[in-house]
Description:
Layout: H1 10-18, H2 23-35, H3 38-42, H4 53-68, E1 88-92, H5 102-107, H6 112-122, H7 126-139, H8 145-157, H9 161-168, E2 201-207, E3 213-220, E4 231-238, E5 241-249, E6 257-260, E7 264-270, H10 277-287, H11 292-301, H12 306-315, E8 322-327, E9 334-339, E10 344-349, E11 361-364, H13 379-390, H14 392-395, H15 398-405, E12 415-422, E13 427-432
Parallel strand pairs: 1-4
Antiparallel strand pairs: 2-3, 2-11, 3-12, 4-5, 5-6, 6-7, 7-8, 8-9, 9-10, 12-13
Amino acid sequence: SVLKQPCKSRISYFLLHKSQTRPTVVHSLQGVATYLPFPALIHTRHRRPLVTMKSWIVLSALLIHSTTASRSPAADLVPGTPGPVAPTFNLSLDEPPETRWSGIVREFAGSKQAILDYFAKQVPNKREQALLTDIGNNLDSYLGELGVEMSGIAKEMGVEVGVVTMLNFGYELRHLGPGHPNTTGNATTMDRTTFHPRGACTSIVVQSPDYAIIHGRNLDWNLPDELRHLIIQVNVVKGGKLLFTGTGLAGFVGFLNGVTKDGFSGSINERLLGGSIVEDSLQALIKHAWSPTHLLRQMLSQRLSYPEAITQLTDAPVTAPAYFIIGGTSRDEGAIVTRDRNSVDDLWQLESSSSETNAWYILETNYDRLTEPEPYDNRRKYGNEYMVKLGRQAASTYEGLMSVLSTWPIRNNETTWTSLMSAATGHIVTYQVYL
Length: 435
């Protein structure tokens, strides 16, 4: 069956089907097979065979066998180098909403064309671009104060408010954008006609032996390198007092993770690619539902306690399915809230009294707890192995958690930033990640 495939596909097929125990090697060799067409490898310019197909397959098998040798993936906990720390800006809620982002946006004025190019790439169809821009032009008034903020950002950037509005609803528009799945295994088993995550996330809440809680997350978003300098931390203040610190993008009024001291830390992981665009839109218009990133900002602004945050996440309608990962300040205050638009599908919390092994942490990628991840995207498996290998004492430190988040495939080609947070101290640091 292999020989029936096109010539340049045979190597990829063989490498992927015979080498699932060592995805890093497979990934590298698959790249070689992709970028160096097979005929170029087996022929000289005089068309004489340099090596036969059989010899090349045997050589590949020996190479892979020598590097796998029954090693566990957890033996390869090799942290990557952290990227630059994201800059931090202040955002005062005492300022008028139409101008409160102006100073921050002005800092990135030179990125206007790159942002517009990104919008065009995410929505490649010109008619869809025009339609979404028109919808966005009418949505800003519906969004209240956040809509006024978006209008102010658009004015500062010199673009239509519809463009800024649609960029701010990037989570709900994920189905439109191009992208690549995180690949940790046999990519040839992927059914490309059905859902698969294209850039996703990993969030972990860890409880130390003395019950201190820390929270880490990777955001995997397919953001091009030329826009990753837009990743920022924002200190949101009112009356001269810090309400919370959140991580997002310049020009993006919601937050994908953040922390309020003595309250809670939160991060959002994508679920079902943000759901159906039509259903998301109807939910927003009919139920006056929150975009997940706007809801997290609202909760952080209110400086909710951990129990209050869980209650609000249980009750509030949201525009799209999402995973909310929450950390608190006290024993067992850690949860993964699996949300549909109008209900909670699952609530999984830390339980120090649980008889389950390794109940001292909870880890979410982009699959429901009882759903088996796809074989090509099993970051959950590797994350769990890395956490167990480190052990509770080491993994419940910033250094230990960072080592997990910066090791492949938890950190992968789609990883855009890494954040570490603690609600007990209010500490948060975000690293920009570049390819």
